Automatic annotation (TrEMBL):
Keyword Zinc-finger (UniProt): no
Protein species of origin: Paenibacillus solisilvae
CDD domains: ABC_6TM_exporters
Record protein name field: ABC transporter ATP-binding protein
Region Disordered: start-end pairs: 329-348
Organism lineage: Bacteria, Bacillati, Bacillota, Bacilli, Bacillales
Membrane-crossing residue ranges in chain numbering: 18-38, 58-84, 130-152, 158-177, 278-299
Subcellular localization: Cell membrane
GO MF assignments: ATP binding
Length: 592
């Protein structure tokens, strides 16, 4: 999609609002034509050159009337602009978010969360800005056309002699703004390096002292400071030069008019009113050139924003960004397509009777490792453990099954119906998942477990019991209301794992998937955890990744992975009799 097509699609999101906005802003830009003509009339009346006589007070009343009309138009213009531009921002952010949330977890965004947030904020803002300024560019061009017509009719020679050099000066200065932007970007970057260095120094005071690296750190800081000084001076100097060109261009223009108009006025070919009109329009023509340049800058920035936004959607067509859909959140805001997807998913929500996976394959693009041709079958209420040596593909298997990694091949069949998009299918209601490294937030323990789930005291109590958390809650300073710090730093590794388990268990699901849930637990707690899970899971089906004997001992069925493939499967007894890999895992656990 070209930048122009993108701009068109964005503005046509709500065509009616766009055109209303365009009409109002064109009127705002055309409005100064009237006071210009009234001012001309005023001076011509004073000098007796006017054929029409409104009287001085009449003209003053007209001027005040024109000013109030413009104020009213500007007031309406801000309303129409806000109504239009914020919708564009919301539409882009909604479509981006929707697309990202539909991606498999590990591939949702191709950059750091911080960078993604800056794309959401800055790139969307820049697109919004360009769309909004397209209206101004149109209005200003209308003003330039009408005012040029009036001025040329008064005096072609004067118009060309005064405005052409001015257009050249302001256009040249406007073009130099791209240089200014380069300097500005450099100064921002150097400032962020300085602040980054300060924050690094503060957070690593001890490490710096222990390594005796004070001087080197200060040298580095001085270097960043010096770089910042240079880029800042360039930025400021360029900014001031451009400002002075823009603010003085009207004065230069007025001087030119005075120089040229003098003898024409003496000859009677140019009235005082004409002079006033030229000077009055001069301001707006200069503004027109500056603002048109601004629009071109925003347009260029939008082209960069478009390429950044498309990189964020990772190869999906750019029309994903401008797809027309309602901005409302919740069910009311869903498009027909989304409703259909939801209905299709619900049709498959019936209790899990059997889940069949065959040929499941996923290779990490950078290492080429992963899983290949995995086959498994889970029956309702079964307790299946996936085991294997380190790096054998256990985590990759469950993540690919749940759609957190995009499968390269294979089929997943839920109750006999193929699952087309596992990432949107395997969500609470159907499945719940605890990752190897639990993700916790700086909030209370209760909120970390519920994460917005409707609070049902009974279900919460049951989940806490199954996750063996009652002892911990009794011993935390504020029980469930204890704030657990950023990423849950105030909890031990085992507590964090069980908090994640409770979070999973509080949600009713047909299929529970645990990835190495008990790696940080002591033997006694682990024993309790598996026993409780095993007995309290009701009819739910469990898929557990573990190499621990306590988990393996509960399994109805065990799948042994090796080098990304299923090496063998069976019960504990069968595998102990036939599989060397399994024997090593089983007896190795005893030794550890
Ligand atoms: N993000 C990644 N990028 C590239 N390769 C990866 C990535 N994650 C895992 N792998 C590779 O894929 C293979 C399977 O890894 P996986 O994490 O599934 O193994 P695992 O059996 O769960 O190991 P562990 O018991 O240590 O959790 C390994 O060879 C690993 O090096």
């Amino acid at each position: 999609m070209t930048t122009f097509q993108f701009l068109w699609q964005v503005t046509m999101y709500r065509p009616f609002r766009y055109w209303i906005n365009a009409v109002v802003w064109t009127l705002i830009y055309l409005a100064p034509i009237a006071p210009g003509l009234i001012t001309k009339q005023f001076f011509d009346t004073l000098s007796g050159d006017s054929a029409v006589h409104y009287g001085v007070w009449g003209i003053i009343a007209l001027l005040i009337g024109a000013a109030f009309a413009r104020i009213a138009l500007i007031y309406i213009g801000f309303i129409t602009d806000i109504q239009f531009r914020f919708r564009i921002g919301m539409m882009l952010r909604r479509n981006l978010l929707r697309h990202i949330l539909k991606q498999p977890g590990a591939r949702a965004i191709p950059c750091s969360p911080g960078e993604a947030i800056s794309h959401f904020r800055d790139d969307v803002d820049q697109t919004e800005e360009a769309a909004s300024w397209s209206v101004d560019a149109f209005g200003m061009t209308c003003f330039a056309a009408v005012s040029s017509y009036i001025l040329i009719k008064i005096d072609v020679q004067m118009t060309l002699l005064v405005f052409l050099p001015l257009v050249v000066v302001v256009t040249a200065a406007q073009m130099a703004t791209s240089k200014l932007q380069k300097y500005r970007a450099a100064s921002r970057e150097s400032t962020s390096r300085v602040t980054g260095a300060i924050s690094e120094m503060f957070s690593n005071v001890q490490a710096i002292q222990v390594a005796g690296a004070e001087e080197r750190v200060i040298e580095r800081f001085k270097h960043f400071n010096e770089e910042r000084r240079r880029t800042m001076i360039k930025d400021r100097l360029m900014g001031e030069v451009l400002d002075s060109v823009f603010s003085n261009s009207v004065n230069i223009g007025t001087g030119l008019i005075l120089l040229l108009a003098g003898h024409k006025m003496r000859a009677g070919a140019f009235s005082v009113g004409d002079f006033a009109l030229f000077v009055y329009y001069l301001t707006f023509v200069t503004q027109f050139i500056t603002n048109f340049g601004k629009f071109l800058t925003y347009f260029k920035q939008m082209s960069v924003a478009l390429s950044r936004l498309t990189s964020l959607i990772q190869g999906a067509p750019a029309r994903v960004l401008t797809k027309k859909s309602s901005l409302q959140l919740g069910t009311g805001g869903r498009s027909a397509e989304e409703e259909a997807e939801e209905a299709d998913r619900n049709a498959q929500t019936a209790p899990l009777h059997q889940l069949d996976v065959s040929g499941l394959t996923y290779r990490f693009p950078d290492t080429g490792r992963g899983i290949a041709d995995v086959r498994l079958s889970l029956k309702r209420g079964s307790f299946t453990v996936v085991t294997g040596t380190v790096g054998s593909g256990k985590t990759t298997l469950v993540r690919t099954l749940l759609g957190l990694l995009p499968k390269d091949g294979g089929t997943i069949v839920w109750n006999g119906k193929p699952v087309d998009d596992p990432s949107t299918f395997f969500v609470p209601g159907k499945s719940a998942y605890t990752a190897q490294v639990p993700r916790l937030y700086s909030d209370t323990l209760r909120n970390n477990i519920l994460l917005g789930h409707p609070s049902d005291a009974g279900a919460l109590k049951q989940a806490l019991h199954a996750a063996v958390m009652e002892y911990d809650i009794d011993h935390l300073s504020n029980g469930l209301e204890t704030v657990i710090g950023p990423r849950g730093v105030k909890l031990s590794g085992g507590q964090a794992q069980r908090t994640a388990a409770a979070r999973m268990l509080v949600r009713d699901a047909e299929l529970y998937v645990f990835d190495d849930l008990s790696s940080a637990l002591d033997v006694e707690t682990e024993q309790k955890l598996w026993e409780r899970l095993f007995h309290e899971r009701g009819e739910a089906t469990c898929l557990v990744v573990s190499h621990r004997r306590t988990a393996l001992a509960h399994a109805d069925h065990i799948i042994v992975m090796k080098d990304g493939r299923v090496e063998t499967e069976g019960s504990v007894e069968e595998l102990l009799a036939t599989s060397t890999t399994f024997q090593e895992l089983w007896y190795g656990d005893e030794r550890s």
